[in-house]
Write a structure and sequence with these properties.
329 residues, alpha/beta, Rossmann fold, six-stranded mixed sheet, five-stranded antiparallel sheet, 47% helix, globular
Amino acid sequence: MQPLPLLHEATLTSLRRTKNLLAFSGGGDSTALFFLLLAHNIPFDIAHVNYQTREQSSVEEAYAKRLAEMYHKHLFSFTCKLENANFEHYAREERYTFFEAVIQEHGYENLLTAHHLGDQLEWFLMQLTRGAGLVEMLGMQEVESREHYTLMRPLLHVSKKKLQDYLEEHNITYFNDASNDSFKHLRNKFRHDYATPLIDAYEEGIAKSFAYLEEDRKRLLPHQPKRLKELFILPKDADDLINIRQIDKILKLLGILVSKAQRDEILKTESCVIGGKIAVCFEKERIFIAPYLKHDMEKHFKEVCRKARIPSKIRPYLYTSGIDPNVLR
């Protein structure tokens, strides 16, 4: 099978040097990525989640097993049953909890997902209608650092049509999820009515625009946060727009999508608790973000924190997590 030039050469070079885990559903996108990785001699194993929501769920799991055996890949399987209410949210939580457990136990460096150009445009349009900024609208990046691994989306610049053409050209079996055609989920309506027609008509221009926008996003997020467990420390920028964009991104990693009122509160107070869960505190040169806790602390510990200029709302998390304040000087 001849590989198509769908993956960036820089991505391929990076993946050849690392231990990779592919999130595999048996649908067209993840199946195309499976065979593209094979064609480019990328080392990887696969992880599959069976939600037991459709009759073909067991068939998709069996297909994952068959591919793993045929191509000598290790398969990690997880089966769960979720309630219908807010299914997508809880399915994502279960899925990533499973993936991250596998990654930590077996030492994988990258988690590969098959998000494509249509997924990126669909997200962009949904955020656009909600009054989001550039960073929020570009919620998907090809390479995204997580605490214990790197999340990679190698197909983010590729249209679904090209992936389907690849599957058909090589006569590769894959499965269609009927729930993707249901307008019960708002994202499906955006995909059907807006994202897919736009990409069909203007694919090349849309792909180029996202590449340019990604460069703009990097300028809005110029600083890399330091992370210790669930504590994040950012350099404080002279531009509050950059500060709030960086904070926004970290809060999203922690599962919180902030409103405009909350953003205004963060910048106005420079010391607040968002959603009763996460403390965001400015110091002279740094911004601290950590889970908000209340805990009695030893007098000596509080004095060390004071000397290290660690905000009071952050100290209980350091204390309970065993983080030495001295390393934050």
